[in-house]
Each structure stands twice: as C-alpha cells, then as structure tokens.
Amino acid sequence: MQNWRVVAVLSSNLALHNLQRFAPVSLYDEFRVAWDTDYTGAGALFAAYLIAYAVMLFPMGMLADRYDNKKLLMLGAGLNLLSSVLFALSPNLSMGLLSRMLLGVSGAFLYVPSVRYVVTTFDQKSRGQIMGWVQFGAGIGQVIGLSLIPLVTMHSDLHSAFMIPAALAALLLVVQSLLLQATRSSGKKAPPMGSVLETAGFKPFLVFIFLAFLANYAIAGWLPTYLRNDFGFDAAEAGIAASLSAIAMSICSPMAGSLSDRLGARKPVLLLGSALSLICFGIMVFSSNAIIIVIAALLKGVGSAMTMPVAQMFAGETFASAGAGVAVGISSTTAQLASSASGPVFGYALDVTKSFAMMWGVALACVLFSMLSIAMVKEHKWVEGEQKK
Question: pTM of the prediction?
C-alpha cells in the first residue's frame, strides 16, 4: 500500500505537468481575442512551455542522477505554483509567454525525477506497469487541461480558470512532502553528452522518439482547433472530444506497461503502438467525418499508451550505462524538441493554408519512419528482473 501511495504521487506529478502543457490548447481563439494576436501567437503559448521544458530536460537528467529526487520534485511543484499565478494574471501575450516558459521549466522538475524514481525504486519485472500507472496521471492531466479549463471559462474568465492549476500545484507540494521518500545519488560521474550519444542504438532510438512525438502532437496540439474550425464544435465540445484520446491513453497505459513486463521486452509493444498510430493517421488523411475523426483520435490514444510511457522505460533500461536519469533526460529532450515545433509550425501552416490536410499526411509519414528507426535498435530481454546476454 505504501508503494501505491508513492505511485499516486508520481502520477499526480505528471498530471499537473500535462494539465499545464495542454491548458491553452482548446482556447486559442479566446487568447487571440484577449491578447490581439493570431494563430501563430496562440500556438506560441503551447510552444513556449515545450521549448523551455525541452531545454531543461538534459540538465535535469544529470541533476536527477546526482541529487535527491524528492527535493527536485518539490522544487518543481513550488515553481509551478508561482508560475501558474503569473500566467493567470498575465495582461498580454509577452507576459503569458514568459510565464509559460517558467511552467515548462517546472515541468522538467516534475517529469524526469518521477521517471527516475520509478526506474531506481521498483523491480524491473513490474516497472512497465508502474510507469503505465504514472502515465495514467499524464492522461488525466491532459483531460483536465483540454476539457475542465474550457468549461470553467464558459462561466467565468480566463484569469479565474487558470487559477485552478495553481491550487492543484499547492496541494501537490503538500502531498509530495508527506509521502515521498528521499532518493540516493547514482554515485556515477555524469558522462559527457557525446559519449552518451555514441551508445549503441541510441541515435536510431532518438530518431524514433523525435518522429513519434512530432506525429503525436499533431493531434494533441491541434485537434481541438481542427474540430472547431472544420466541424463547428465550440471550445468545450472540442476539448472534450479531443480529451477522449487522452482518456484512452490513460486507461491503456498500465495495460501496455504490463504487456511489456510479461513479454520481457519493450520493443514489440512500441512497434504495435506505432502501427495503431499509423492506422489512425491513415483514417484522418482520408476522412472528413467528425465522428470518424474522433474515433481515429481515440485509437491514437491507445497507440500513444503503447509508445510514450514504454519508450521512457526502454530508455532508462536499455541505455542505463549512461545513467537512467541522463538517458531519460536526453530522450525526453528529443521528444519535446519535436513536440515544441508543433505549435508555431502548425500554427503558421494554418495561417497560410487554412487546411489540416498536410498536417495529417506528414504525421503519417513520421510514424512510418519512426517504426523503421526503432526496428534498428537491439533490446535484450530479461527474466525475473535480470537481463539475458
């Protein structure tokens, strides 16, 4: 029971992180009006979080290997609280972008130490399931960000709605201090980044991560706007419809992790999840039916459950010689560099072309090439926590 309380806290860390990440996505049109900007500027709100998050992930990986993860997580929750208040009170786009960048920094404090806590605390034969439950929180956070925040704005204003994450950050800070245990340093000197990149299979794995996340954020970042503009959904309806993908990811993440535990390997699950994503984007390229689009996005949520949390376990285990925190940090940095491009790039594409067709086609190609990349990476199976040679 003690372990499951810890898992609940770690899951809550990712819930807050993802809530903050996605909170503006269903409200681009409202921010355009409130701050007199365009879709490029609104998309930059999404990107600001992701860019700051991406920049911090590699140094956070080194910090997570060398310092108490509990203290790092509490620092993350505290910074998240202060930055949340700043964003809620922001009077213009410039202040909004600054506070979103600070929130992105706090996201790195919440994410990497949480994943390292799983890798270094739980047995290998159960890590996939545990990480799946931790990822469950990420899905819940995405749902809250995509649906609850827009619902609140229907009865109040943007400033009031965005005080909700601040209250949740304050609660999380208290829970972290009561339930998490201190962690030990790995005892290893942080390796140079070049030596980490030279680890066998690491570069193809990073290509997989980059392309998979770029494709994922085509839906996660822009599906609500697509549903609003092309199918007449309002902000709440679009957010709820888009959140179905996150709900599917949340429900299926523990099952995907358990499957990889039973197989004694993560790679087959990564390939299966990628195949499901490929089918999803194939449907979205050729369909113009809103119901079918939402169903396809739901399928993408299942595919994401089989790739996103499992990929982090794959990084922490397969490249553990570099240090679990460092391996997770670099792979997460790559993921966020890809996802951060989704805001301004797709926003600019919408401003210029007024069409989503290219986005879905490019996403399909990204998934296809990501599958080819992960196929090049060798994984050693294990038996009851011990890897085979």
Answer: 0.71
